[in-house]
Amino acid sequence: MSKHSSSEPPEEDAPVTRQFNDYARLSGIGLEFSASVALVGWLGWLLDDWTGLAERFPVFLLLGVFLGLALGIYRMQLKLSPKPPAQDSEDQEDNS
Asked: Can you give the residue ranges of every domain in the chain?
């Protein structure tokens, strides 16, 4: 039998587990960023094709790519910014 409990990783595996968790979290953020650019850009391309602007100048494609970039950066900033501390104690003092 192992001397470690099954719910807790061994101490020597803790840094590896943390690195894997960080890698998985950041990979998800990167995939979400690229998916937002690709999806909104694709929708702009479809709109250009539908309106017939694709032959002259792809206005909606460019707008879609830039909107996707802005959306991706905004979502990335939300996920990477530190969470504000809970203010439960201040709220209780204000209500009394």
From this structure: 31-80
